Amino acid sequence: MKPTVQVLDTGMAAINAVRDLNQRGYSQDDIYVLAHDDDHTDSLADATNANTIGMSEEGVFTSMANLFRSRGDELRAKLESIGLSEQEADQYEQELDKGKVLVIAKIH
Fold first, then answer.
1. Within 13 A of 76's CA, how many CA atoms are on the CB side?
2. Tell me, what's the pLDDT at 53?
3. Domain ranges, residue 22
4. CB–CB of 3/105 below 8 Å?
């Protein structure tokens, strides 16, 4: 199943969204945060105890390839690795370019 994605304006909104997902029964293992900047993503993950999209989701090849990609290409590859289509990944990457934050929940 496709993950659900929330596009949020601020880190605080992301914190609240993760908290809401927890209250609705989502496991921390199924919740991801993503911002355009790696440092922002990492600080959000720390603040929410959510995950970042990393090697376990991307696989070794994609993770290694991301070292040589532009940031936009890297973000799109990360989004596709968790089950979004190429078109959806492009759409959400554009939101990240605008400074938005994504909270992604995998559905089992």
1. 14
2. 87
3. 4-105
4. yes
Residue written as token pair 């938005």 = 100
Q: What token pair was written down for 55? A: 């090697």
C-alpha 10: how far from chain center: 14
Q: How many residues does the chain have?
A: 108
Please give the tally of structural domains in the chain. 1
In degrees, rounded to 5, the angle at the alpha carbon of residue 90 between the alpha carbons of residues 6 and 98 is 60
Q: Enumerate residues 6+ apart whose C-beta is below 8 A from 85.
A: none
- What pLDDT shows up at residue 8? 98
C-beta contacts of 16-20 below 8 A and 24+ residues apart: 17/103, 18/48, 18/49, 18/50, 18/103, 19/48
pLDDT at site 60: 76
10-residue averages of pLDDT along the chain (108 residues)? 94 96 93 94 93 80 72 91 95 96 90
Say whether pTM exceeds 0.85: yes
